[in-house]
Amino acid sequence: MTASTLWLALGILGQALFSARFLVQWLASEARKESVVPPAFWWLSLAGGSVLLAYAIWRQDPVFVLGQGFGLLVYGRNLALLSAAPRLA
Question: Domain spans of the chain?
Fold first, then answer.
């Protein structure tokens, strides 16, 4: 297996993680019968975005790098806000 094939597989994995967040959000919303964004959405965003950023850097694609890099800031900030929020008992 070549390095190029491994990077392609990593890129596909990143995209799968990133896309899974929409399934998680949809299922959570359907269960509550209202639009919700569960913490798993942000964790999958962070995981998928990180893998995709590594892939974008390997591809040397500045547009892709900027997009994923900015996204990681947003996902991290949302997770920080969730961790700082008071817990309901």
Answer: 3-83
